[in-house]
Amino acid sequence: MMNEVSDHLDYGLSVIFIGFNPSLRSGESGHHYGNPRNHFWRILQQSGITPRLYHFSEDRELLKLGYGFTNIVARPTRGIDDITREEYAAGRKLLYDKLMQYKPSIACFVGKGVYTEFSRKSRAEWGFQAETVIPEVREFVAPSSSGLVRMSMESIVEIYKQLGSNLAQDSQESE
């Protein structure tokens, strides 16, 4: 069995990025968004969320920027079709507990499916959600960064820019 990719969580984070689960490549490397076909790190840089392009091996470094990482399911798989209903149920509870414990300013769900699995809502729009699951934590739904997503990179980056401008505004207000 492949190792789980450890969470990078702390108190006082601006945002926690939440994925479905690690890919097999991420499981092998031990880092979040470790598949070279995953666009996550480029999206963060192009949307202005990070000041430069980070390599997946630097994922822990993003804690210094106030950004954390976790997944709804910790077990690496080839794809989301390999995740069981039982794993989602257990993962939902664990994720709820993590968000209640750490209370980031924003929980960013990397994919609508991640959010609908967590929230149990049948659908979600991109961006900030009007009704949140966790009190005091704003919930943001962003497109998946998987190379399999059929949206254009430009469209994906535009949605992440909404998150980036909100993070920039929050950091200005806290100065």
From TrEMBL:
What residue stretches are annotated with the Uracil-DNA glycosylase-like domain? 10-152
Q: What is this protein called?
A: Uracil-DNA glycosylase superfamily
**Organism listed in the record:** Paenibacillus algicola
Keywords (A to Z) from UniProt = DNA damage, DNA repair, Hydrolase
What InterPro entries would the database entry show? MUG/TDG, Uracil-DNA_glycosylase-like, Uracil-DNA_glycosylase-like_sf
Record carries keyword DNA repair:
yes
An example GO biological process term is: base-excision repair, AP site formation
Q: Name one GO molecular function term.
A: uracil DNA N-glycosylase activity
Presence of the UniProt keyword Cytoplasm in the record: no
Give the taxonomic lineage as stored in the record.
Answer: Bacteria, Bacillati, Bacillota, Bacilli, Bacillales
